[in-house]
């Protein structure tokens, strides 16, 4: 006998995620993704066919990475309500060699954003951009940057059930100490609103979008997480140490870190393939040149 969706179970699922100490942003995303599925089946029968049909719908309307994140949320919900039989495997995605250039923030564009913020006197935003760009932390981890951490030049971050320590570059410590003096901040979180609450993702997102338009940088490239990607690419280009980079970013898998080190420069990727494997001798044959013996006759 096929079971139908149990009314109210979504709220129970939300409470379950909260009990597992998941971040509010993760809970909101999982809830939103499950609600999208429930709207798709419109209160009808919840079975394997319904879930498969939903995946076909996603394939026609979303990118593969987005589909996997939505399916992961749905699988979590299905397991919670005891419908493991309806869970689907995630899509197998081949690792890409390069990013979409329309979404890759370059070092030059990063510096252009900072110049614009400095010219406008947007000190808090400029310091936030420099902090994420210098450390690679998540925007949700900014509250861990405190006045006290500047003295230790180290930040202890407890995120996703993992604790990691981030070293603060001396140049960043100097910059943030000056900012704290300007703001008369002597303790606690450095980046706060007028009411003293830590700035949240929405505050930073909207401020960066407004800044990029004035700085002449495409909006598709400017969002907090892209600063984290820029940090990863710059670090890897300098150190070529992906394991150490994974530790800095807080990744459990190096495969996750690999996505952060991709480049959008297709021609640069193509040049790395020039390893002399297409020899001159073979190229000559393809061009119609024929080898001759000692007497000058073609072989």
Brief summary of the model shown:
This protein has 299 residues and is mostly helical.
Low-pLDDT sequence parts: 1-5
Strand order, main sheet: write it out: 1-2
- What's the main sheet like? 2 strands, antiparallel
Shape: globular
Written overview of the protein:
With 299 residues, this protein is mainly α. Helices cover 56% and strands 4% of the residues. It contains 14 helices and 2 strands, in the order H-H-H-H-H-H-H-E-E-H-H-H-H-H-H-H. A two-stranded antiparallel ribbon has the order 1-2. A hairpin with a 2-residue loop joins strand 1 (154-159) and strand 2. The longest helix has 18 residues, at 24-41. The chain is globular. The N and C termini lie far apart (78 Å).
């Amino acid at each position: 006998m096929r079971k139908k969706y149990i009314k109210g179970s979504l709220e129970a699922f939300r409470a379950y995620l909260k009990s597992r100490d998941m971040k509010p942003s993760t809970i909101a995303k999982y809830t939103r993704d499950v609600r999208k599925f429930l709207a798709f089946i419109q209160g009808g029968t919840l079975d394997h066919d319904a879930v498969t049909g939903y995946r076909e719908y996603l394939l026609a309307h979303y990118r593969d990475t987005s589909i996997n994140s939505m399916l992961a949320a749905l699988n979590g919900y299905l397991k919670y309500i005891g419908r493991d039989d309806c869970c689907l495997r995630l899509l197998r995605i081949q690792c890409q060699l390069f990013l979409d250039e329309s979404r890759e923030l370059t070092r030059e564009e990063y510096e252009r954003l900072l110049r614009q913020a400095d010219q406008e006197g947007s000190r808090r935003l400029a310091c936030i951009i420099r902090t994420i760009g210098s450390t690679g932390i998540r925007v949700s981890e900014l509250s861990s940057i405190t006045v006290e951490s500047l003295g230790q030049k180290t930040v202890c971050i407890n995120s996703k059930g993992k604790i990691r320590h981030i070293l603060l570059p001396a140049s960043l410590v100097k910059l943030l100490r000056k900012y704290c003096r300007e703001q008369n901040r002597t303790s606690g979180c450095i980046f706060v609103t007028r009411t003293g609450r830590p700035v949240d993702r929405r505050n930073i997102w909207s401020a960066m979008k407004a800044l990029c338009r004035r700085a002449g940088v495409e909006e598709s490239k400017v969002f907090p997480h892209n600063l984290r990607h820029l940090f990863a690419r710059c670090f890897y280009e300098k150190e070529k140490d992906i394991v150490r980079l994974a530790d800095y970013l807080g990744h459990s898998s190096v495969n996750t870190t690999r996505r952060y080190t991709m480049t959008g420069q297709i021609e640069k990727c193509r040049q790395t393939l020039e390893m002399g494997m297409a020899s001159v001798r073979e190229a000559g044959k393809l061009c119609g040149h024929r080898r001759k013996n000692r007497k000058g006759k073609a072989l």
